[in-house]
Amino acid sequence: MYSPDAIPSVAHPREVLLGAQAAALCLPVCDHYSGVEARMRKSLQLQAEMMQEFGACVFDVTLDCEDGAPVGGEAEHVAMVVALAALAADKARVAVRVHAVDHPAFEQDMAVIAGALADRLSHIMIPKVESVADVLRAERALLDASAIDLPLHVLIESPLAVRNAFEIAAHPRVQSLSFGLMDFVSSHGGVIPADAMGSQGQFTHPLVLRAKLEIAAACHAHGKVPSHCVVTEFNDAAAMTQAARRAARELGYTRMWSIHPNQIRCILEAFAPSGAEIEDATKIIAAAARAAWAPISFDNKLHDRASYRYFWQVLERAHQTGRALAPEVEAYFQTALD
Length: 338
Known about the structure:
Elements: H1 13-18, H2 22-25, E1 30-34, H3 37-54, E2 59-64, H4 74-85, E3 94-97, H5 106-117, E4 123-126, H6 132-144, E5 152-156, H7 159-163, H8 165-170, E6 174-179, H9 181-186, H10 206-221, E7 225-228, H11 237-249, E8 255-258, H12 261-271, H13 275-290, E9 296-298, E10 301-303, H14 305-320, H15 327-334
Parallel strand pairs: 1-2, 1-8, 2-3, 3-4, 4-5, 5-6, 6-7, 7-8
Antiparallel strand pairs: 9-10
Helix pairs in contact: 4-5, 5-6, 11-12, 13-14
């Protein structure tokens, strides 16, 4: 790998190039969901093992209290989730998906989970968000639980939610928008065929594709993270990799859901920049830093802060996906801005 000359001690690239959007852009590219106790434990164990392997937390674990909780057993499920989250490895990223804001268990979910884990969770996922009013209700529940700084991630799962995606993404408490594919298809009363929920059809049906693009555009407009939906064919690594690559390269998504451990590495690989992209980005950022971020010529092309921003984001994605980086670049991530 290319090893640049020592990069001088100047302002951090996130400060120079990204400003206030830096924190939102640095989420892991994979969000792994599990809702059954045995799978939750395995997910947390796998997360700890891969933190050792990569030297960073390369995927979130989201413990599910919506689809995971048995009907009538919501309180017991929440108590179990709180106990498991408290056992997560140091520096692990653990989140919880609660019930929708109009569900009878929502208030209890938020009071118990946010109250007990406000300093432990990376975020709380709110499903079936339809409007900013739903976000405000979730925010009030956080404040009631004294979870002052805990971010919200939201699931966009209906035509109305897609219509309101830009307003939802603009709310300062919202860090990421996820697309809920299966609920979105079901919300159309049967006019979208079932194959639009598959790994191929979800990239070709016009209504599904439009929803994905609207969500991605809303997130990028407000500096938030667009998170792509599930691939249900969890034993088909090729289908998973292809879907993840299309989400990243064609639709502008910077994060994706996993519902099976087999999918995590597929997502990391698909969202990672290539070795050649990393090498070019390393050279350009190193040269830019030596020039105190003034314009430079590289490979007979002019580069300035507009292109530096792109190449820094390549290095961000490389770090998020556990790619090897030159020591001088890796140092930036050891002194990352809060």
